Amino acid sequence: MNIQPTVSQAIDQLELTPQVLHSLVRTLSEPQASAKPNATSWSVTEIIAHLLHTERNCYQPRVEHILCARTVIVPAYDATRFEAEGAYSGATLTAALSMLGDLRAECVRQLQGLTENDLARSATHESVGRFTLTDLIYEWAAHDVGHIRQVALVIRDVLYNPFIGPFRD
Ligand code: NI
Questions:
Q1: I need a labelling partner for 79 at 20 to 30 A (CA). Which of 31, 47, 125, 164 fits?
Q2: 49: CA distance to ligand 1 center in Å?
Q3: Chain-wide mean pLDDT for the chain?
Q4: 51 C-alpha to center of ligand 1: Å?
Q5: Where are the beta strands (DSSP E) in the chain?
Q6: Which residues contact 112 (CB under 8 A, 6 or more apart)?
Q7: What is the pLDDT of residue 112?
Q8: What is the distance in A from the centroid of ligand 1 to the CA of 69?
Q9: What is the whole-number distance in angstroms between the Cα of residue 153 and the centre of ligand 1?
Q10: What is the distance between the alpha carbons of residues 153 and 150, in angstroms, rounded to a whole number?
Q11: d(CA 50, CA 7)
C-alpha cells in the first residue's frame, strides 16, 4: 500500500495549516500565548512568528528561486541566528496569525498553479544539496505539522499541566 501523499495533498495541508493553528490557539489570551514553557523554548506566539518568518524568508523565496532559476545555491535557513536577532519576538499572536494566513494563501495560490515541469525543477541548497520543488513542498508540509505539534505541546505544558492538581507527577 502506497501511503505517500500526492503533491496536491501536501498543498492542501499547507492551505489548512493557518486554520488548524487558529483552532488550536483561539481560546488563548495574548499573555497566555506569549508565555514560554521554559527559558529556552518558544511561546505559542514565537512559534507562529517563526512560521511567518520562514514563509517570508525561506519557503516563498525558494519557490521563486527555483521558478526563476535566479540563483544556483540557496542559503540554509538559520533559525538560531534569526531567533537571536529577535525575528520571532515582538509580535502579537493575532497579528502573526493573520499575516501568516494572508501570506500562506498567496503561496498556496501560486503552488496550485504549478505544472508537472515546474514541480520537477530544482535548486541546490548550500548544505543539503540538490532538491526539487516537489521535495520542498513535502518538507514545507512536514515543517508545518512539526510546529502544529509543538504548539499543542506548549499549550499542554504552559496552560494545563501546571493546574492538574493531584494528577501532577
Ligand atoms: Ni521551524
A1: 31
A2: 10
A3: 95
A4: 7
A5: 73-74, 122-125, 129-132
A6: 11
A7: 98
A8: 25
A9: 15
A10: 5
A11: 24
Tell me, in angstroms, the distance from the centre of ligand 1 to residue 24's CA.
18
In this structure, the dihedral spanned by the alpha carbons of residues 138, 100, 96 and 78, taken in order and rounded to 10 degrees, is: 40
Separation of CA 59 and ligand 1 centre (Å) = 11
Cα gap 133→139, rounded to integer Å: 10
Phi, psi at residue 122, to the nearest 5°? -140, 170
Instruction: Please say if the pLDDT value at position 20 is more than 90.
Output: yes
Task: Compute the distance from residue 141 Cα to the ligand 1 centre, in Å.
Answer: 11
Ligand 1 midpoint to CA 1 (Å): 30
Handedness of CA 43, 34, 91, 98 (dihedral sign): positive
Which of 49-81 are b and which e, b meaning 16 or more Cβ less than 10 Å from the residue's Cβ?
bbbbbbbeebbbbbbebbeeeeeeebeebeeee
CA neighbor of 22 nearest in space, from 71, 94, 88, 81: 94
Backbone torsion region of residue 165, taken as left when φ is above 0, otherwise alpha when ψ lies between -120 and 50, otherwise beta: left
- pLDDT, tens digit (0-9, with 9 covering 90-100), for 41-96: 999 999 999 999 999 999 999 999 999 876 678 889 999 999 989 989 888 999 99
Residue that has been written with the C-alpha cell 494572508 in this structure: 102
